[in-house]
Amino acid sequence: MKVREEVLRLLMEEGTLSGGKTAETLGVSRTAVWKAVEELRREGIAIGSVHGGGYRLEDRDRVLSVDAVRAFLGPNRGMDVIFAGSRVDTTNTEALRRLGDGAAPPFVLIAGEQTRGRGRRGRSFYSPRGGLYMTVALPGTFPVTALTGLTAHAALCVCFALEEIAGMSPGIKWINDIFRDGKKIAGILTEAEMDAESGDAGHVRVGIGVNTGFGEAPEECPSMAFLGIPALRSALAAHIAAGVAAYEAEQGLDMAAYESRSVTLGRRVRLFSGGREHEGLALGVDKNGALILDEGAGTAVLSSGDMVREVSE
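Above: the chain's sequence. Below: its structure in token form.
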């Protein structure tokens, strides 16, 4: 790992560093630490000086950079990190362009703002500056039936990251929305290119948006909320990306972990799936992330659905 990545990681964890102690910790010279700091400053990361030869990371909660994400991923990250810039149309669209230009998955692409953020079924996703917008691109080794489970797994990864890094206790509204105190704080959109012969997914792109910043939700998104907490976006991005990329190695969805964080299970809900309306008691999810619904006359297993809501008794 490069010295500047290690220096940035330590700065983000500690806030301030001693040049001498950092050099000793990393096994490099103080000059090497100084050069690393200067490189980070040239990249636009605000690092101030502290009396006695130390360094201070200014406004560390706003840092979102390739070096920071790489540092939090660690030396065995197994994936590239791409910073798409301060603004893109959508990270999924930009990731598709990068794949077309020859970028090899797996990689995580991050951006500071989306101008045309979107959710499922073409809905818009409000994506102002200050949030975390990212796409994890994975090799095309997934059967189509695994994509619902991958989306559910990604939602679980977002929860894990927010729990560990931000000290939160979010919940999952089936299948891909993250809620806190009844308000949506994150969403996920999984897209893939399909192989016409095998029917399997080609390159898979898992787009994730987390409302880490401050602000007010627009009138058209009354159920949306901003975290407004000192969340380290680079740390969140690394934690989420590593978790999503481990889906196959973990052999699918951790159903118990998903169900324990669900805000849908145990409630009567109404949703539309496969061209028809379903209503019943949400019992659980299966290994592929499909919702198991007791409709009274029988049990339905739904791999996709829209307009999930509680039904008043």
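The two ends are 58 Å apart (CA to CA).
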